[in-house]
Amino acid sequence: MSRPAKRIIDLTAIQANCELAQSLAPQSKTLAVVKADAYGHGSVEVSKALEDKVEMLTVSCLAEALTLRDAGIVAPILLLEGFFHTDDLVAGIANNCQFVIHNSVQLEQLLNIDLPSAIKVWLKVDTGMHRLGIPVSDLRHIYQQLKASKNVSEIVLLTHFSCADDISNPYTQQQLRLFKQSIDTLPINSTADIEISMANSAAILAWPESYFDWHRPGIMLYGLSPFLHSHKQADKLIPVMTFQSEVIAVRQIAKGDTVGYGNTWRAERASIIATVAVGYGDGYPRSAKSGTPVLINQQRAPIVGRVSMDLISVDITDITPTHIGDTVVLWGKSLSANEVASWANTIGYELVTRMPKRAPLIYQ
Ligand SMILES: *Cc1c(COP(=O)(O)O)cnc(C)c1O
Fold this sequence. Notes:
- With 364 residues, the chain is α/β, with parallel strands linked by helices.
- The chain is 27% helix and 24% strand.
- It has helices at residues 11-24, 35-40, 43-50, 62-70, 86-94, 104-112, 139-148, 171-184, 201-206, 337-343, 348-353; strands at 6-9, 29-33, 56-59, 77-79, 97-101, 119-126, 134-135, 152-158, 195-197, 214-215, 241-253, 258-259, 265-266, 271-276, 293-296, 299-304, 312-315, 327-331, 361-363.
- The site of pyridoxal-5'-phosphate has 12 residues, from helix 9.
């Protein structure tokens, strides 16, 4: 028998979340972001669930795309970091991948290689995130070089927001304005000649001006809100992952007793403590503070003391009787990974993405 810690993945919830993105931006085609093993949800199963609903899938690099191809996924795949070597370019083309071109080395290699046929290129423009992308001031020149290249059949322009999750931040409008202005300077006859992609999940949920031809939902597919606060659209998302385990010990402790490594938590009253078979070795964050909620029999109870590699302790004094073998939900539909993340000084994105394989993925 395996340990009881597991990750249950609701594939119909992924499909419903994808439909929400598409209903908000019905004019846009969908690039479903399944990088980093679909944010820890398993890229093969997630891609199978989404393949018929979206125009393209998106990962970071060729290795992630080949994992999908090996599993029989046939949808076209965009590589967000493009190619790291011209070998990747050739192998990617042979595997129905498309590439983001974001730096001058990739550009030179693309212009100088001898490709059997012309490809569609996704040119990334830096409108203010200052992470990847060509400078706005180089766009016109690079666009003309790509247009003139026998290796290039079509060009999509994309950019990425740095603050779209902060609804009151004017920086998003600034990036939008800069992107539109720089596209207006290009020698194109009509906007029908070029495709544009801008919106990530936060923008799909909150910035309709950014929809354009292609949107790129990531975290929202997995049912996690990109926002810190309640939001009308984001609150419709259905969390996809239920991370759960079981109670494996229950004990009474006296007022003044301590729990866990370092004796960091001390009972202020006589208490009942449940020990749960999950820890940082399963992906539960060690930085989760005493007080972080878990769900036992649909009731919230706080963890106490330090998170161990394989175990956590929960103060169950105030909830109905709990027994060895009871299910404990660490995060899921009634307790968001984002809420747990806020107790651990991080974000839901990180919690779900960095989980080790130890807690098996189970698909429903
Ligand atoms: C990861 C990523 C996305 C998806 O972002 P979410 O916030 O998860 O929706 C979109 N575009 C690019 C370029 C990305 O790197």
